[in-house]
Amino acid sequence: MTDDEVLPLEIVRRKPVVGIDGEGSTHHFDAVRRRIYVVTDDEIEVTENIGERHLKAWIDYVDEQRGWRDLRYSDRGISGLILLLS
Hints:
Elements: H1 9-12, E1 17-21, E2 26-30, E3 35-40, E4 43-49, H2 55-65, E5 68-71, H3 78-85
Antiparallel strand pairs: 1-2, 1-5, 2-3, 3-4
């Protein structure tokens, strides 16, 4: 599998959940590929490579566009990592 290939839905769902946005879509983060997967209605709606950008930039973008119903990430040190990986 190359870095450009999208993972199957069943694998994406095992990735840590960043949160659920205001439209009900679930955002998963693949830390190895530095990629966000947005899952809506059992389909991968969006795949976004964040590269060197901090995950917080994606969180802020979603907050502006859709808002968050359930944000599980915090950028406050190790607590943010623990929440992200839970």
